[in-house]
Every structure is written in C-alpha cells, then in structure tokens.
Amino acid sequence: MLVATLACEWGARALRINALTIDARADQHEIAALAPIVHFVAGAQAQFVTGQTWRAGM
Asked: DSSP letter at 48?
C-alpha cells in the first residue's frame, strides 16, 4: 500500500515509484530472472508504470 500511495503523491512531479522485494531464501536463478523486469522499469518504455510491487522467491 505504501508504494501505491507514494506513486499517487509523487506522480504529479513525474516521479515513478515502484518496489522490488526479494525473499532472503531466493536463489540466484530467481534473482537473475528479475533482470528483464528491472531493465524495463528503469527505461523510458515504462514511463506510465508506477505504484507496482514485484516479488521474487516468495
């Protein structure tokens, strides 16, 4: 809920707020599988993606 709230509050300033949570027990393969998502969200293609939370290894 925090990510969605911050996304609403900071969206007017053209800031994107997203989160990535990784379980401490996640193995290297699960973490490596997130690379395409991180690359996409960090790029210009995701200019309208905000308020999202991705979870790995949970």
From this structure: T
